[in-house]
Model the fold of this input.
Amino acid sequence: MRIRSWGAAFVSATAIAVSLNAGVADAAPAPGFSVTSRYVDTEIAPGIPTFGAISGMDRIGNGDYAMISTDVGRAGPARFYTTHINFSAALGQLGVPSLTGGGTVLGPGTLPLLPGAAQFEGIRKLGGDYVVVSGGNQEFVRQIGPIGTFVRDLPLPSAWRPTSKAGVNGQRGLTGVAVGPRGQVSVITAGGLRQDPANAARLLTFGAGRAVPQREFVYRTDGDKVAADVIAVNDTDFLVLERGRGRVTRIYWTTTRGADAVTNKAKLAGNEKAMPKTLIFSTDPVPGLVTGNMSGMAWGNWLPDVRGQNYRARMLYVVTNNMFNGPTRVHALEVRFPRR
Done:
């Protein structure tokens, strides 16, 4: 059943400073500006037998998206898909997503990954390539070619390397990846490293050439949630999707501005100044919405300007991970950025 909200379910993020250009929002001092979001529509992605367990999604063109599956071995090899999704701004309605292609994610030596050799949690377009992250028992950040061929692994800091007492921690490990406007790659953990407080997720950004981790900050999740995905707004600001116990899933606007850098810090004390965050969307005030296991976010197109409108709006899509136990849903949200 399709559910649409035409304005009742707004969530406001107050005092977020933004200005806009033709691409992404660009942070600028503008106290008192606010960002609002609105649930718009949901559509189910029809699949083939191997389609499912979709954990990440990214825009790769006008209406075109890449989706990656966490599955390695249950219904096929590690793989990603390309899809096309139409959206009618006039009707506020999603079209049925259609599969257009995809590829197999290969490992070093251009070899297929063995069952259990990855748990892919996110995918982003990176120039002509993709960058993907794996969590669970096999944690890595990997650049792959447009058809899935191995390019390189990006090095994790020593504090992140898994041991029995430290490092990325299973289901609290790598869970999302973002690519900024200058091609900078950032990754986020679901929660704390083994040696850190449980809700002290870390956001890591790689430097020029992506060969060296450059900046690291703490993102503190809600007590009953973990970070499920991250997407860039600009060089310093991100959206983070949090999910956990209960049906309520939240999206926060967060920024590295004003947060303590914890670059190369072996262990967090718990009193570091985390990235400030402001709620811009919650599933709680959308009655009747079958949320599914919300897992990945992707920007859509900017919506047409309306004369006299004091904001610009862009679509944001959230995809669900059905773990092959139900349909893959794509939820459409409208994010409204105030004009200066």
Q: What stands out?
A: The longest strand covers residues 35-45. Residues 3-10, 12-32 have pLDDT under 50 and may be disordered.
